[in-house]
Amino acid sequence: MQHGKYRFIAGFLVLPLAIYAIFVISPFVQAIYYSFTDWTGLSPDMKMVGFGNYARLFQDDIFWAAVGNSVTLLLLLPVVTLSLGLFFAFMLNVGGRRRKKAVIGGVRGSGAYKILYFFPQVLSIPIVALLFQFAYNPESGALNAFFQAIGLDTVQPDWLGDPQLALWCVMAAMVWANVGFYVVLFSAGMSSIPKDFYEAALLDGANRLNTFFRITLPLLWDTVQTGWIYMGILALDVSAFAFVQIMSVGPGGPDYSTEVLPLYVYQKTFRDGQAGYATSIGVSLLIVTLIFSAIVMRLGRRERLEF
Amino acid sequence: MGSTSEFNRRDLVKRAAALGIVAVPAMSVLSACAGAGSGGGEKVEKGKKSAKNPLAVNESAGLDVVIFDGGFGDKYAKDAQAEYIKAFPKTEGKIKLSSTQKIQSTLQPRFNGGNPPDLVDNSGAEQMDFGTLVAKDQLTDLTPLLDAPSIDDPDKKVRDTLRPGVVEMGQFGGKETWILYYAYTVYGVWYSKGNLRKLDAEYPETWGDMLALCAKAKKKGIAGWTYPGKYPYYLPFSLYPFIAKIGGTEVLRKIDNLEPNAWKDPAVKAAFDAYYELYKKGYVLKGSPGLDHLQSQKAWAEGKALFIPNGSWVENESAKQIEKNPDFGLAVGAPSSLSASDKMPYGTIWASGGEPFIVPRKASNAEGGMELLRIMLGNKSSQNFIKQVSSLTSFNGGTGGITLPPGLASAQAALQKAGSNIVNPRLQDWYVALQKERIGVGALGEMMAGRLTPDEAINKIQKYADDTRDDSSVKKYKR
């Protein structure tokens, strides 16, 4: 029965694997090769420098600032976004007051909230970043105007201009842009949880907090895990790059407080003409990503509840 | 589920997910690395050399031009292109002129692949690093253009029609001229005569007057200064000539040469202290550290602040806001005198070439690229540029017979007043990362936001400069 199984499967996988090898694996190998050269990115002329680029990384304060900020984003962004997403989804689907017919339901007007939450998702990243940049404008932005309106004239932060605040400001915009997607994702997940679970729990006298931690979250675990991975990628990847590039001082500042790895790769390649060094930063970004995925896989390994 | 298969579906999914995680971020990084392609554009044949065609341009070959679409827009280049077609009618329809703000991300793959355009305005935030381009032999020497007769006067070489210093700026130590700066920018303290008049003031020629004027403005709720805190490397536009004025050009030369302790010169400290005092006394527009160049220029043009460090492109860039106030009277001021013992007289100003044009080494029609530049450096195109974007060109002239807009007229007057006291710090074209990011964002921006004292800023900058000097991956220059 098992005879020839691998050959059979391999037969199906040849084409996709070939495509994967050409378009995914080979650029990897190429990039790792470039990271050992002094390629400028402006001419095809380069020579090998061995581990020179990597040795330089260890001395590079800006690189370490970028690693620090990227890791901060990686740790905090998924937690904040997913927690908010879960909370909102729970309120929209399960958290409401008991009404006559339905045993469980969302808060009043949950349909409208759903649309509202999802709305940022239809805006492109640069638009969201620009919107927030306007809001953060210390001179005429909405935030400082709001503080003035409620009589807090003395509280006029520089927002993006302040190294203590800048990264948080960028992060807030990223959360805002992404949370809606998770509300919808988790809502879908929650709607597939059988209602009788909640009925039984409510009969036993469970409160909302209990139903959330004992029923909703465990049954939603797979979805949460997927969301976690997805959010982690966003934190390390294009999204972080675009937000920082558009919004931050410098960009990457003030004083490197918002420098992130993908932005640093970009600056080294496209501003300083040091593509070889940039690829070695890219490889270290790859390593950070690998560590992240290994940790997530390990933490996420738990038996799925089946029903 | 009850599957008996050895293949655990869950594992498979997980592995696939793991690969996916790895793949996605890395892909975006790698997509930048198009790799070192070969081949590329073929050179077009040379045309016949004649009095009308001194560079021997192929009269029917196409031309590929990329213009930086920044403060000056791209219309001036399109007009010059029309002149080119007039001179070589067979090229009609074969000229491709595109404009972008993303010079490097658009052009890097083309340089790498060996098929770059014939003429590039390598400017803006995404300027390609000249040091690397020169070191990697990617540029065409423009000497033939400089030695060709000018378009207006066949007895005069193009070289002799340019403003002083322009040719030297395009050289990197050797005899070859790699870059031709087309615009001629006057940097300094930009202000509105109208707004000063409202305060019964003239442009303050001494720092004491400057502080007094700022104090007066503050009482009326107007800030003295603003600057683009998002891009703090605008501060040097008035700060560097200020340093030169206090301590002499020698200080700037040492800084450009990355000499040890160049930044520890007392003139630097004095200039930094003076600017820091502006912050300390609350003369800087609140929130400036968070503004970008357009936002700060808008606040300044609306009269919320009196002074802004900037270059002559500001007249074009802020035209919309300035027009709202017919009384505006845009003008540029040289750095005020700090004390009577300043080494250089009042009027010392920073003026130098802007909008660097290059002809790539592997351009297929390098002669055409140079010819277009020759046309642009003629009287007609120069005048057109001056009228359109109110900035001078490197062509020494072109201002006759036209009424200059106020900002430009003031820049012209400032140049005359400066005479030979024109300084030209090279940090910003030699060491872009050092100037813009490290000194600008890392130190000057921090100091003007009040988060570094002048001493701390100087120490930080000195360390940055030392790091750059010791960094073997950065090519060094001397002047």
Quickly list its features.
heterodimer; A: mainly alpha; 70% helix; flat; B: alpha/beta; 10-stranded mixed beta sheet; 11% strand; globular
What does this structure look like?
The complex is a heterodimer of chains A (307) and B (479). By secondary structure, chain A is mostly helical. Chain A is built from twelve helices and no strands. Chain B is 43% helix and 11% strand. Chain B has helices at 9-30, 75-87, 103-113, 130-135, 143-147, 166-169, 193-198, 207-219, 236-247, 249-256, 266-280, 293-301, 314-317, 319-323, 366-376, 379-389, 406-418, 427-430, 432-448, 454-470; strands spanning 63-68, 95-100, 119-121, 180-192, 223-225, 305-310, 330-333, 349-358, 392-393, 422-423. In chain B, strands 1, 2, 3, 4, 5, 6, 7, 8, 9 and 10 form a ten-stranded mixed beta sheet that branches. In chain B, helix 2 (75-87) links the parallel strand 1 (63-68) and strand 2 (95-100). The longest helix of chain B is centred in the first third of the chain and has 22 residues, at 9-30. The N and C termini of chain B lie far apart (77 Å). The model of chain B is unreliable at 1-7 and 21-40 (pLDDT under 50). Chains A and B meet through helix 1, helix 9, helix 11 and helix 12 of A and helix 1, helix 3, helix 4 and helix 19 of B.
